[in-house]
C-alpha cells in the first residue's frame, strides 16, 4: 500500500511538471519574450505582470471631469506629470472600461510653447486592466514629461468607480447624482492612472457641472469658472501626496449646513433637499466630536 501511494504521488508530480512546462513553453512560444504578452487588440503588449512597472512614476494629476447626469456618461481630460526612472518607450498604467480618445506627450519644460505634442500609441490589455502608451522614441531616465489623455466612459451601475446613484424626492421624482468610491482598485474606472497605493501623487481636481448642481472633492474649492453653454467649472485646491484610492468627488443637488470648531475648522454636512432639515443634529455632534479629538490628540491642523 505504501509503495502504491508513493507511485501515485510520483505520477501526480510528473503530471504537474508537464502541465507547468507546457504553460511556460506556450507563453514563451507565443510572445518570443518574457516581458511581452498579447492583449485582445492583437498588438504586442510590453508588460506581462499584474503589478505596474516602476520605470515611470506620477508626480501630479491635473484632472478635469464632466459627468452628464442626463445621459449618465462622463468625459475627462487629464495631465499627468511623470518622472522617468529608467529608459523606456512605454508608460504602463491602469484603465478599466474607459475609451481613450487621445494621448499626447509633452516635455515638462515646453508646456508654454506652441509646439505640438508627440502622439502616443495606446495599447490595451483588458485582462490586466492596463494600457500602455508607446512613445516613438526612448524616454530618457531623469526627465519629466506631461502625459495628456482625453477619455470618456459611462457612470457605473454598481457602487465602485465613478458611479450613478439615485434618490427619490417627496413627490416621487427620481434624481441622479454622480459619486465615487475608488477603494481599493477602482480609480482606474474613472480616469487612467497608476492605480496602486505605492504610486502616490498630488491631485488637482476640476469638475464641470450644471448650475443646479454642486461639486465636492477632497480639498476646498478655490474658484469657479463660467464656461460657454452655461456650464460651471469648479477648481479644487491641490491635495497632499496620496494614493489614487483616496481621491473622491461628487456632483449632486445636495444642500448643506456649516459650523466652525473653536480652532477654526469648518465642518459641513450635506443631504438631499428633502432631508436638509435633519442635518443639524449631525452637524452639532460632528463639531463636538472634532473638538474632543483635537484636544485628546493635541492636533489642531487637519487635512481636508
From TrEMBL:
Keywords, sorted A to Z: Signal
GO CC aspect terms: cytoplasm; extracellular space; membrane
GO terms, biological process: peptide catabolic process; proteolysis
Annotated InterPro entries: Aminopeptidase_N-like_N (IPR045357), Aminopeptidase_N-like_N_sf (IPR042097), M1_APN-typ (IPR034016), Peptidase_M1 (IPR001930), Peptidase_M1_aminopeptidases (IPR050344)
Signal peptide coordinates: 1-26
Record-annotated Aminopeptidase N-like N-terminal domain positions: 57-246
Highest taxon in the source lineage: Eukaryota
Gene3D superfamilies the record matches: 3.30.2010.30, tricorn interacting facor f3 domain
Gene Ontology MF terms: metalloaminopeptidase activity; peptide binding; zinc ion binding
PANTHER family (alphabetical): ENDOPLASMIC RETICULUM AMINOPEPTIDASE 2, PROTEASE M1 ZINC METALLOPROTEASE
Protein name: Aminopeptidase N-like N-terminal domain-containing protein
